[in-house]
Amino acid sequence: MSNLSDAANGLELNFPVGYTSLPDSVESPVLVLLVDDEPRILSSLNELLKGRGYLLTSAANGGDAIQHLRRGPFDLVILDLHLPDIGGHEIMDFMNQQKTGCNVIVTSGARGIDAVIGALKRGAYDYLRKPYSREELLKAVDNALQQRRLKAENQRIALRLERSERIYRYLVDSSPDIIYTLDHEGRFTFVNDRAHQLLGFSRDEILGKHFSVLVHEDDLDRAHYVFKECRDDHRLSRNVELRLKSRHTANDQRTFSHELTNITFGSTEDLQNSELDRQKAFWGTYGVARDITERKRADELINYQAFHDILTQLPNRALFRDRLGLALLQAKRNESNLAVMFLDLDRFKIVNDTLGHGVGDELLQQVSSRLKACLRRCDTLSRLGGDEFLVVLADLTDRRDAALIAEKFIESLRQPFALADQLVHISASIGIAVYPFDGSTVDELIRHSDVAMYQMKTQGKNGHVFFDASMLDAATQRIALEHSLHLAVEQGELEMYYQPQVDVMTHKVVGAEALMRWNHPERGFLSAGEFLPFAEENGLMIPISDWMLEAICHDLKEWNKVGDNKICLSLNLSPQYLDRGDFFDNLKNALIRHDIEPKQIEVEVTENICIRNPQVAIEQLDKLGQLGVSVAIDDFGTGYSSLSYLHRFPIHTIKIDRAFVMEIQDVGAHFPVVLAIISIARGLGLNLIAEGVETRIQERYLKNAGCDVMQGFLYHKPLPQHAFMELLRNQNSLVAEMH
Question: Is the Cα torsion angle 419, 420, 424, 426 positive or negative in sign?
Fold first, then answer.
């Protein structure tokens, strides 16, 4: 008890050795100080109180009493007023100054009233006149200690209440939510500190004000309705989203989820047994407002991303289908036309592969902006993915309106795009399906516009065409071709052809380029250009390339049996196959399995492979070089050439593209591109091969310029394995006869 009392009074007392401070439990000893200058009375007091659970300390004068009071706390002091050195009143003054907080029973033989008044003024609990009876003293002691216990208990309860209130205040003010109460007229009667942190309004600015001062104007009607409904139904608890004004945000508002509960003051629910009781009660509203602004924004962003293309911000397929469905309903109701356009960019893959995906993304964004500028507000432009776009042209009077929009698209794309410090030219192939002539459902119109777009691709690209039912037959044939290609490897329909490479100085075959053919059971022999694009689109390049490695190694092993001069075989490598991690291991294992020297293999790659993913290409080609396989750049000069690639990549051979060779029509003319490529190869010490040589004029010009190895129809067409073997045998026979 004394500890709690001391803490309440803010005392910091030093306990003497041997003294034990009293805890709050009843079993703890009570510290009692006995002060009297008469030894007989002091001894009598000790005998009287001994054995009652008290810890007794005696003082024979005022000086000793003060020393004891300095050293430790006491619960009770039995004090004689008349002491030889220091009077009882002075000792009590000392106790009050030191705020000891202990109870005092004053004993005195004085008969005057002044002594009594002086003691009581100084806070004495009781005053006993000497001589007093034993029972009188014991009763006074018991009452004094009981009063002290009650006082200590009251202090403990008060401290608990104060602590509870502090905790409550802390929890309420530290809540992440705004907590508030409104009276029956909607005025704020309480609001926690969170309102100031989130909204910027102080308590003084809010308390006593109507809730409408904080609610956003657009949500006021809903707020009035909800709060009125709460007042009308006393048991109602409601949740509502309301925007509140804020001084912290740019748009001056934040969104909160409000949980509202009715409260009553001055009357408990148990006592409100009648309607009259409830009407007399003072009703208010308790509200908890949670800030959900960021969650709302996240939900809006997720919802937006679910229906829009993130790169171009255009509607995606899901939103496009929804809008097309609505446009169809309106067209049916108004008996009007609408058109669906399927637009695919031409040459986009080249740009994406050579300049990188970042530049490709920027190109798609610029294309989107140009296409949108050609449309009306009622039209919808959507990106399906990649370089494919869909367009809904609503409320058309004639199909010629769709043709005009398509021509605007083509014209808008005609101007070059500035990308990566260079100008890029692209075009588009557009297919158009018109409701109700080309379909009456969402799926039909999209599918038929897609079919028309592919028809435009086959007709040369960079234009538009309307759907026609006959196009479905061609589309069906294309699908059948794709299906047959899946079976071609399993059924042994693929075959390797080889175009010889000739040294024009010795007229010997020094190498060959491997070319794939498809012996289609119905359409006959198909060149690589007729089916490999389908293979790339359908993920078949990997198994086809694996088959090719086995086939060329098998054939090359047969070539080596014909003569001692082992010629080099070059093979074209798909970018998809180079990017695959196990390409190198597959090639290495095939060479070991067929006992082929790596120096007999030359891998042809295009500039696009090197530019698209340089680091991966360097790693793969370096591994080939370490194995002993050489690398050639095919179609050099036709892509986005950069001389730095010839330094960075392990290149051994440059091949002059057929497009440059075909321009040579006069031996005496000047063809700077060809001469530049030959000069580059000489300067870098690289091998040089000219492709597509068909005339003696071309041969003579290239030979005079310094190119000695050529391939083309002037020498040999691509030959099957048995014909190429025969060519090698004949060449070896001629060499043997000459010796």
Answer: negative
* Residue 191 lies in domain: 175-298
Q: What is the pLDDT of residue 6?
A: 37
- Check whether residue 504 and residue 456 sit in a common domain: no
**Domain closes at, from 245, 279, 298:** 298
> pLDDT tens digits for 709-727?
999 999 999 999 999 999 9
Indicate if 499 and 633 belong to the same structural domain. Answer: yes
**Cβ 582 vs Cβ 633: under 8 Å:** no
Structure tokens at 407: 């021509």
Write out pLDDT tens, residues 454-472.
889 878 889 999 998 888 7
Which region, left, alpha or beta, applies to residue 53 given φ > 0 means left and ψ of -120 to 50 means alpha? left
3-state secondary structure of 127: strand
Model pLDDT, residue 558: 92
**Chain centroid offset of residue 428 CA:** 34
**pTM score of the predicted model:** 0.47
Query: Domain holding 229: CATH number?
Result: 3.30.450.20
Whether residues 323 and 419 fall in one domain? yes
Residue 539's contacts (CB-CB under 8 Å, 6 or more residues apart) are: none
In a domain, 681, yes or no: yes
Query: What's the Cα-to-Cα distance from 691 to each of 501, 599, 717, rounded to whole Å?
Result: 9, 21, 12
Strand stretches in 140-267, DSSP E:
178-182, 188-191, 237-245, 253-265
User: What is the pLDDT of the chain when averaged over all its residues?
Assistant: 84
Kind of pairing between the strands at 508-520 and 494-503: antiparallel
Q: What is the pLDDT of residues 114-148, one digit of tens each?
A: 888 888 898 898 988 888 888 998 999 999 989 88
What does the alpha-carbon distance between residue 58 and residue 64 come to, in Å, rounded to a whole number?
Answer: 9
Determine the average pLDDT of the residues in 21-26: 42
Whether 284 and 314 map to the same domain: the answer is no
Give yes or no: residues 579 and 616 share one domain: yes
| DSSP-derived secondary structure letter, 229 | H
Instruction: Please check whether residue 474 lies inside any domain of the structure.
Output: no
